[in-house]
Amino acid sequence: MSKFLIAPSILSADFARLGQDVEAVLAAGADVVHFDVMDNHYVPNLTIGPMVCQALRNYGITAPIDVHLMVKPVDSLIPMFADAGASIITFHPEASEHVDRTLQLIKDHGCQAGLVLNPATSLSYLEHVMDRLDVILLMSVNPGFGGQSFIPHTLEKLRQVKALINASGRNIRLEVDGGVNVDNIKEIAEAGADMFVAGSAIFNQPDYKGVIDQMRAQLAL
Ligand code: DX5
Ligand code: ZN
């Protein structure tokens, strides 16, 4: 896999023609499909479940699908998403009674596992599980909606998590989600992120390839 991964959030895609829209964004150069699952309980919004993930696989989408679970409780959805074709499953630790068990459940079902930390969630959640993480996802907005503005103090948190990853000696992806766009992606990468979720910045205009190319150009500077 390349050093930097672009992961469009399909929350901002056209749900009436989701298969074609996902196909188009992958053809435009995206690496990963970011799949936001919201339950109107852990977050105040309601989106899509395993059936839609399976539908994308049935449609012929072969790219990695990065399932971001904003749900509480978490565990019962993990086997369902694994069966539906998820590649990566991340969850918010405060939404699980037993974080270590939930991580193991994801691994046991053959997916890569990660924790998601909200802007105000303590990094201490990482302390005892670094050896089981494939991904750490830092939220740079409060979860629940696309189209919000990047919260600047997240940059310092990114730097801190990057230092923890380096100290661990492990190859853990550092993913950032919320308000990422062409104008701030370089600064976010410099703070340590290597996987970039972007929803509205990509889907809310017609030229997906143009935006993704501009993002990659920023990352190459
Ligand atoms: C927010 C979701 C994000 C969201 C990002 O709760 O987790 O993935 O879709 O959207 P933008 O890039 O528009 O901030
Ligand atoms: Zn997300």
From TrEMBL:
Cofactor binding, note field: Binds 1 divalent metal cation per subunit.
Pathway membership, UniProt: Carbohydrate degradation
UniProt xrefs under PANTHER family: RIBULOSE-5-PHOSPHATE-3-EPIMERASE (PTHR11749)
Species: Pseudoalteromonas tunicata D2
Active site: 36 (proton acceptor), 177 (proton donor)
Catalytic activities: D-ribulose 5-phosphate = D-xylulose 5-phosphate
UniProt: substrate binding residues: 9, 68, 144-147, 177-179, 199-200
Lineage: Bacteria, Pseudomonadati, Pseudomonadota, Gammaproteobacteria, Alteromonadales
Cofactor: Co(2+); Fe(2+); a divalent metal cation; Zn(2+)
EC category name: isomerase
Name of this protein: Ribulose-phosphate 3-epimerase
Enzyme Commission identifier(s): 5.1.3.1
Residues the entry annotates as binding a divalent metal cation: 34, 36, 68, 177
One cellular component term from this protein's GO annotations in UniProt: cytoplasm
Example of a GO MF term: metal ion binding
